[in-house]
Amino acid sequence: MHLLVTSISATWQPFVLVAGLLLIGHCASRDGLFEALGRLSTRVPGRGVALFVVMMLLVAAVSAVLNLDSAIVFMTPVALHAARAKGADEKAFVYGTVLMSNSGSLLLIGSNLTNILVIGNTTTSPAHYSARMFLPWCVAVAVVIGVVLWWRWRALRSALVSTNGAPSTLHLGAGVMATLIAVVAMLFVRHPALLVIIVGVLAEGVMFVRDRDLRARSILEILNPVTLSVLFAVAVGVGVLARRWEAPARFMAHANVVTTSVVATVSALTLNNLPAASLFAAHAVAHPYAMLLGLDVGPSCLVTGALSSLLWRRIGRREGATISLRTFSTLGVAVTLATVVLALPLVG
Questions:
Q1: 85: how many CB neighbours lie within 10 A of its CB?
Q2: Could you tell me which of 295, 18, 10, 3 has the C-alpha nearest to residue 182?
Q3: How far is CA 64 from CA 11, 58, 292, 293, 331, in A?
Q4: Looking at beta carbons, which pairs linking 130-135 to residues 24 or more positions away fall under 8 Å?
Q5: What is the pTM of this model?
Q6: Residue 8: helix, strand or coil by DSSP?
Q7: DSSP 8-state class, residue 304
Q8: Residue 21 in contact with residue 181, Cβ under 8 Å?
Q9: Where in 100-244 does DSSP place strands (E)?
Q10: Strand partners for 46
Q11: Which DSSP string do the residues of 75-127 spell out, in sequence order?
C-alpha cells in the first residue's frame, strides 16, 4: 500500500497538468487562436516551402506551450486545411505535424507528460529546465523541418502559394489569456499542475457565460477522461513495479548520456514512452535530459510509441489524409537519429 500511495503521489501532477492544458487549448480554439495561426501562415509569400516552414514553427510553438497532444488535436486539421487551401504538398504537412509535435515537446516541463515524470524526481526548476533544453529544442525543430524538406522538396518547391488568404481573426478572450497564464506557470511555478487546471476550468466557465452554447460533450471529446484514466493507472502500476524492481534504476544511474538516450528510445518504442518514463522516473536518473531526448523524440519511430501519434493517425484519417505507417517510421527514424546525434552534446 505504501508503494501504491508513493507512486500515485509522484504521478498525479503530470496528468492534472495535461488535463488543464487540454481545457485551455479547447478554450483557445474557441477564441479562434489556431484558425488565426493557420490563416496567418497562408499569407506568407513564396512557394510551398515557406508555408511549410512557417506552419511547422507554429506547430512547434503550440506543442511547447499547450502540450504535444493539444498540438496534434488542434494543429493537424489547421495544417492540412492550410496546405489544401494553397495547393501545397499535403504529405509534408500531415507527417511534419506529428513529427514536430513530438520534437517540439522538449521545451517546457508541461510540454510532455514524460518531462514532468522525469524532471519531477530532481531538484531542477521549470525555468532551469527550459533554459537547459532551449538549444536542444531548437535543434530538434530544425531537424524535423530539414528532414521533411529533404523528403518533399520538389513537391513543396513547385507549389506557388498565393498571399490573398482571408485575414486572421483572433478573439482575445479567456482562452488566449489562460494560455499566457499557463506559459508563465510552467516557467516559474515549480508545481504548476493545480494552478493550470484551475485556470483551465475557470476559462471554460467564462466561455460558457460568454457563449451559452458550450456543451459537455465537446469538452469530454477533447479531455478524453477514459484514456487519461487508463494511462494514469498504467503509469501508477509501472511506478509501483519500478519501486519494487530496482534493476533498471541501478543501470540508468551509472549509464552515460549515449546509453541513456538509446535505452530511453528503445524503451519508448517497446513499452510506449509514458510507461517507460514511469519505469525510470521512480528513482533519480544520472542524465535526465538525455533520457528525455529519447522519450520525447524516440516515439517518432513507431506510431505506437506515444499517445500523440495514435491521436494523429485518427485525426488525419478523419480529415481525409492518407496515412502510411511505413512512411511515418522511415521519417521518424531519420528525425530521431539526427536529433539525438546533434542535440545530445548540448544536453551533456
A1: 17
A2: 18
A3: 21, 10, 14, 14, 21
A4: 130/187, 132/289, 132/347, 133/106, 133/107, 133/289, 133/292, 133/347, 134/107, 135/343, 135/346
A5: 0.90
A6: helix
A7: G
A8: no
A9: 160-161
A10: 161
A11: HHHHHHHHHHHHT--HHHHHHHHHHHHHHGGGSSTTSSHHHHHHHTTSS--HH
**Helix or strand run (H / E) with residue 280:** helix 273-281
Q: How far is CA 322 from CA 93, 94, 157, 329, in A?
A: 12, 9, 21, 15
Those residues whose C-beta lies under 8 Å from the C-beta of residue 141, and which sit 6 or more positions away, are 56, 57, 60, 100, 103, 104
Contact 199, 178 (CB under 8 A): yes
CA–CA distance, 338 with 147 (Å, rounded to integer): 9
Return the half-sphere exposure (C-beta side, CA atoms, 13 A cut-off) of residue 1: 0
- Count Cβ atoms below 10 Å from residue 53 Cβ, excluding itself: 18
Cell numbers at 241, concatenated: 513495479
Q: Are 174 and 206 in contact (CB under 8 A)?
A: yes
Rg (CA), the chain: 19
Q: Please name the residues in contact with 59: beta carbons below 8 A apart, sequence gap of 6 or more.
A: 71, 75, 79, 96, 97, 100, 101, 104
Burial class of residue 187 (count of CB atoms within 10 Å of its CB; 0-12, 13-18, 19+)? middle
In DSSP terms, which residues pair with 251 in a beta bridge? none
> pLDDT-derived band of residue 164, with 50, 70 and 90 as boundaries?
low
Find, among 70, 76, 67, the residue nearest to 96 by Cα. Answer: 76
- Render pLDDT for 194-209 as a digit per residue (tens, 0 to 9): 999 999 999 988 888 7
> Where does residue 172 rank: exposed (0-12), middle (13-18), buried (19+ CB within 10 A)?
exposed
Identify whether the C-beta of residue 50 lies closer than 8 Å to the C-beta of residue 44.
yes
Residue type, 149: L
Q: Where are the domains of the chain?
A: 2-347
pLDDT per residue over 115-159, tens digit each?
Answer: 988 887 778 899 999 999 999 999 999 999 999 999 999 888 876
Beta bridge partners of 161: 46
